[in-house]
Amino acid sequence: MEPLTPSQKRALKSRAQRMEATLKLGRQGASEAFCCQLKEALSQHQLVKVRFVEFKDERKSMARHLADSVGCHLVTVVGHVAVFFQPAPLSDAQASGEESSELMA
Question: How many folded domains does the chain comprise?
Answer without folding.
Answer: 1
